[in-house]
Amino acid sequence: MAAEPILAAAHVSLRFGGVRALTDVSFHVNPGEVFSIIGPNGAGKTSMVNCISGRYRPTEGRVLFDGRDITHLRPSRRAGLGIGRTFQNLALFGHMTVLDNIMVGRHHLLRHGFATGMLYWLGGAQREELAHRREVEEIIDFLEIQHVRKAVAGTLPYGLRKRVELARAIALKPKLILLDEPMAGMNLEEKEDMARYILDLNEEWGMTVLMIEHDMGVVMDISHRVMVLDFGRKIAEGTPEHVMADEHVRRAYLGQADEAVAEDAAEAAAP
Amino acid sequence: MTPAGDFRTSYRADTTIFPTRNSRIALWLGLALLCAAPLALGRYELGLLVNIGIMGIAALGLNILVGFTGQISIGHAAFFGFGAFASAWLHDAAHIPVALCIPLAGVMTAAVGLVFGAPAARLKGLYLAIATLAAQFILEDFFARAQWFTGGVAGRITEPFEILGWRADREESFFYVVLAWVVIMFVGAANLMRTRDGRALVAVRDHYLSAEIMGINLAYYRTLSFGIASFYAGVAGALYAHYLLFVSVEAFNILLSIQFLGMVIIGGLGSVSGSLMGAAFMVLLPEVVQAGADALAGGAIDRALRLGASISFLREMAIGAVIILFLIFEPDGLARRWRLIKAYWKLYPYSH
Ligand SMILES: Nc1ncnc2c1ncn2[C@@H]1O[C@H](COP(=O)(O)OP(=O)(O)OP(=O)(O)O)[C@@H](O)[C@H]1O
Ligand SMILES: [Mg+2]
């Protein structure tokens, strides 16, 4: 392990009244990794991601990004640091075009506010818009959504919306991208596409990926390391093979100690 | 929707406000026609156009707040009034030329709007509506008390617009002042909506949680929206003051606030051009009702229903009924109807 971790959670606990969503969870993600969080429904995976993106504030513990304590940082400040994310339940700007949705991702990179924006041609807002538009088009090409760039996001089919959400998160130029079930509800072909995009993001675009995913096949294929949550606690962490071989994981998460563990899990988790 | 074969060749051409060649031709033709309007129209008709322009600017401001940012204000008329008094006061107290007083009044009103908009950073929905209602009453009360600012119950005389010796004290001349401001304010809003802060406002409306994750500071943009809306109201109010050459407190009551909301709903929430359509509708509707009543006057129906005495009541009823009908049958407003009509003609005669 060469560099210092890009993300570290230290003894994070999160309670909602009597519900313990997370209990003393610690882990770290190294730069350049694809790190997956798995676990049964309600295990606290999304809660963990929310603590990182700032939606939730941990009841106890700390979250560090690039060595900096961000536990109490406003969510809107985290985009500027280099954290992007997608949501488990789609969270696009439904009435905006796909293009505008993705351009919102550029928000923290744009300098022209309302005054120079209104003047547009005077003062450089137009130049800035067009420069960023060019970069956004690269993302659109990468995710193969050229044909819908002018469509209103809320009218698109599910699979495409997932892709637009990914595009919007990429537009932020994040160092760390958090993907909450990027393949949920997709058919096999769409899943394969999505897995390829995630790998490209990691390898070609140099982004560190933290992913929540139920599809065990995909998790095994593309993650460097995996963490398993169960009832808000971390029960295992390591390489996919290591985690799959773990006795706790088999019992707690998979509910059985079968030989064909991975296949069963994939079936059980398929929606 | 663009006709097939109308391909864009650069991102620049792809980001224009008026995307097709025909729409640009129509725009320039329309502007040329408007510039010639004072030659052809009488003072009464020009007065209607001036009113449409002024109300359109104020409605656009409210649309930025309600339609684009998804907030609510039932105090818009108070900001409109503040702009009117501010411009008159700036001219009298500081001897600033009227031409400059108008944008300055806009800035002053924006500052007041930011103060009253501050609760928007925390309040939503009904609670925010009540907070803006409070703003309406507080400002009305201020107007009644601050004699130095408003002239009190007697009202305040205002000076006509003048620039380089050209006085705009009649409909024929003031029309051009309003036309210029309409162009500036509407182009400004259209530009805003295709740049960072405009998109941020819409993002806050559509999904504030993911807007925040995109780096958008919710409190800032919710408050900013009030500032911009108030700026528009202030400029419109200032124009109104220098058009009527007299301003008094009663004009800026909650009924006018409701009318502004009506314009925005009828024109189309979240539509720049719709704001002007809604204003035109609201200004012309009473004319139509009046014309209808005049046509009936003296007839059997008039005698039976005594329309003559209740015409103003009928007018309010008609406006109320129209708002309700729009909410039910055309919730996206005139702007959408207009788009459908354009789409129909684009494909004509193959539109099915
Ligand atoms: N805002 C909230 N208020 C109250 N309880 C919550 C809240 N968010 C999450 N929880 C609870 O915390 C626990 C963990 O939820 P979380 O959404 O993190 O699970 P998950 O692992 O993402 O599950 P899934 O696979 O279904 O997405 C659940 O018991 C859930 O009910
Ligand atoms: Mg979840």
What does this structure look like?
The complex is a heterodimer of chains A (271) and B (352). Chain A is 39% helix and 22% strand. The longest helix of chain A has 18 residues, at 125-142. With 271 residues, chain A is an alpha/beta fold. The two termini of chain A are 36 Å apart. In chain A, strand 9 and strand 10 form a beta hairpin. Residues 256-262 of chain A have low confidence and may be disordered. Chain A has helices at residues 45-53, 75-81, 98-105, 114-119, 125-142, 158-171, 188-203, 216-222, 240-245, 247-252, 261-269; strands at 7-16, 19-29, 34-38, 60-65, 68-69, 83-85, 176-180, 208-212, 225-230, 233-238. Chain A has a domain at 1-82 and 224-271: P-loop containing nucleotide triphosphate hydrolases (Rossmann fold, 3-Layer(aba) Sandwich), CATH 3.40.50. Chain B has 352 residues and is mainly alpha-helical. Chain B has one domain (42-347). Chain B contains 16 helices and four strands. Chain B has helices spanning 11-14, 21-40, 43-68, 76-94, 98-117, 125-145, 147-150, 171-193, 196-206, 208-213, 218-244, 254-267, 272-296, 300-305, 311-329, 333-347; strands at 156-157, 161-163, 166-168, 246-247. Chain B has a two-stranded antiparallel ribbon. In chain B, strand 2 and strand 3 form a beta hairpin. The longest helix of chain B is centred in the middle third of the chain and has 27 residues, at 218-244. The interface between A and B is large, with 43 and 33 residues. The structure holds adenosine-5'-triphosphate and magnesium ion. The site of adenosine-5'-triphosphate has 12 residues of chain A, from strand 2 and helix 1.
